[in-house]
Write a structure and sequence with these properties.
Structural class: alpha/beta
Radius of gyration: 33 Å
Oligomer: single chain
């Protein structure tokens, strides 16, 4: 066996040496390997640092420290003296599959063999792509901006162990380090797990950098700058984020800022969306919310996450309910009291699950995953408990809440959705969406039905998932005239037709709070003016739709409301009501002010923390 291997090694050596190439293929004219001493002197690269064990691409090994006379540029032996050593290494590699790591010197992105020239030669013949090496890096000491960036990248890599971020701008890696430090602060706040800075950095790269990179690339933000390194594009986004946050005086977070950035820079009017991209946006939104939480709310969040797993939107809604309860009852927010509150209020949703499970309702058997998100069910049962107790004017047991829920919500909504053309993957979201809308109307004494609510959402079954997703996010096709009943009581037939025309023109709204607000705005306007309010409403909506700055802000809010798990698609009419509601302290005088002036002031005062956590 050894004799055959000896013959094979000699044949390989002969073939490699005579063919001047890898596995017998010619590599062209022979030239010398680069001399490390020459490159070191040229780059003034005398400072060095040991990088440890790495897998190095064979193609990047282009020189030698002391063997340039023995091998050509492709590490093909030039001297017969090398044959015995070369064949010995070949036999060892064939028998064992590996050899000790070679030792390489690195200058910028080029490697030079310090020890292991023969091993590299054999690896070249065997056409290996990588070789294991102990690497020592030597750093240029010139004033060339490229050398400065290289030093910064090395320092960044040594601290973070991240080597896949490239930039052509000095100072960028320092910005990345600051962002990682902020991320680290948040992780320390949320978890007691002891992670090294490199582990934190890898987590930042995975949870923040990569999602933003993918979202921007899929939306083709860098289409006109394909040669620009992504680190620079990322910094363009960070600069935009800092600008709208006025260098820290406001807090919009990554998610909101990224949506805004996309609308500012995307040539299309809408962001490209699919379920994968929405998951990436939600990951960023989760981080933004977490980093905005006070110390007290972080402790509540930790307790909640021990009780059940749910979305960050549901977690914040429950935390707000806890805050409200303890403030109203002037109770101390101890861990024991918080756990007791969660336990006491979990009975209703548990009873709902148990009672539905006892009944053979085929819809819930086919869509049992509705019960997986305990946080959503907790909020669902909690909200309806308040509504039912308000309607019946007495306290109700968990069992009574569950039975009423089945009668008023579970059975009717299952009847509607069972007949729908909605794909199964959308059923769960639509279930909670319709239920939340119904609860809002029920709270205000409306007699609206699930059938009517669904008609406001129903789509043609031929519409593909992407279009349905856009409809869900952008709120199209909401043309149900049965809404705005209270407002229409004050209108004659012509005015009702005019209102319906306005609603259809501006994508309607199914938010009952907006309906109530418009009724109030109408009454206020008629106190100070004899002019037609409907004409003012239409003119104001046209102004909002045509103002570029407010339109960008509105488009950002549309998508953001969807990520926040809002019960309603956010239309321009809702945006109009949001602006005017923010100036409630002005009373009816707000009706006399220009909507663009009010809108500009509103977005100037807007803050992520107040918008999400208040």
């Amino acid at each position: 066996m050894d004799r055959y291997l000896e013959m094979e090694a000699e044949e390989a050596y002969k073939k490699f040496k005579n063919s001047k190439g890898i596995l017998g293929f010619s590599l062209g004219k022979q030239t010398q390997l680069k001399k490390f001493d020459d490159i070191q002197k040229e780059a003034n690269a005398y400072s060095n640092s040991f990088l440890g064990l790495q897998n190095v691409e064979m193609d990047k090994i282009i020189g030698s420290v002391g063997k340039v006379e023995d091998f050509d540029k492709n590490f093909i032996p030039k001297n017969k003296i090398l044959k015995f050593r070369w064949c010995s290494i070949y036999k060892e590699m064939i028998k064992t599959g590996n050899l000790p790591p070679v030792q390489l010197y690195k200058v910028k992105n080029e490697y030079f063999a310090y020890d292991g020239n023969h091993r590299i030669s054999v690896a070249k013949y065997l056409n290996l792509k990588y070789i294991e090496a102990e690497v020592t890096e030597f750093f240029p000491s010139t004033e060339d901006p490229k050398d400065i960036i290289y030093w910064e990248k090395f320092y960044f890599f040594k601290q973070t162990d991240i080597k896949d971020i490239e930039t052509d701008k000095a100072g960028v890696y320092e910005i990345f380090l600051r962002k990682i430090q902020i991320f680290e602060k948040n992780q320390r706040k949320l978890s007691d797990e002891k992670l090294s800075f490199q582990e934190i950095s890898k987590l930042w790269y995975k949870e923040i950098f990569l999602p933003i990179k993918e979202i921007l690339e899929i939306n083709r933000i860098n289409e006109d700058t394909r040669n620009e390194k992504f680190g620079d594009i990322f910094i363009d986004f960070i600069d935009f984020k800092d600008f709208i946050e006025e260098n820290g005086t406001k807090n919009y977070g990554y998610c909101y800022s990224l949506i805004h950035f996309l609308y500012k820079n995307n040539k299309n009017t809408q962001i490209y969306l699919d379920d994968y991209l929405i998951k990436l946006f939600l990951k960023l939104y989760k981080f933004d919310v977490e980093i905005s939480l006070s110390k007290e709310r972080v402790e509540k969040l930790k307790i909640l996450r021990e009780c059940f797993e749910t979305s960050i939107s549901s977690e914040i809604k429950i935390i707000k309910k806890i805050d409200k309860y303890f403030k109203r009852n002037q109770l101390e927010e101890t861990e024991e009291n918080i756990r007791n509150w969660i336990g006491e209020n979990s009975g209703s949703y548990i009873a709902v699950i148990n009672e539905i499970s006892k009944r053979s309702i085929s819809f819930y058997k086919e869509n049992s995953s509705i019960f997986y998100d305990k946080g959503k069910l907790f909020i669902e049962a909690f909200s309806y408990k308040k509504i039912f107790e308000k309607i019946y004017k007495k306290s109700l047991t968990d069992l009574e809440i569950a039975l009423l829920y089945i009668l008023e919500i579970a059975q009717p909504i299952s009847d509607v959705l069972s007949k729908s053309s909605i794909p199964r993957e959308e059923i769960i979201n639509l279930y909670f969406l319709l239920s939340k809308r119904y609860s809002h109307y029920l709270m205000h004494g409306s007699n609206i039905t699930f059938d009517l609510l669904y008609k406001a959402f129903d789509k043609n079954e031929k519409v593909n998932f992407q279009e349905k997703l856009k409809s869900l996010v952008y709120g199209k096709n909401f043309k149900t005239p049965e809404f705005f009943i209270d407002l229409k009581k004050d209108l004659n037939e012509n005015q009702t037709n005019q209102l319906n025309s306005i609603l259809e023109k501006f994508n309607m709204t199914v938010n009952y709070k907006t309906e109530l607000a418009l009724k109030k705005f109408k009454d206020e306007y008629e106190e100070i003016s004899n002019e037609d309010w409907l004409s003012k409403l239409e003119n104001d909506l046209i102004k909002l739709s045509e103002n570029e700055e407010l339109k960008t802000y509105y488009n950002t809010s549309v998508f953001f409301e969807f990520l926040r798990d809002s019960a309603y698609p956010y239309t321009i009419i809702d945006f109009y009501a949001t602006i005017l509601n923010s100036f409630e302290y002005l009373g009816h005088n707000r009706q006399a002010l220009d909507i663009i002036t009010l809108g500009t002031e509103y977005i100037y005062e807007h803050d992520f923390h107040n918008h999400v956590l208040s």
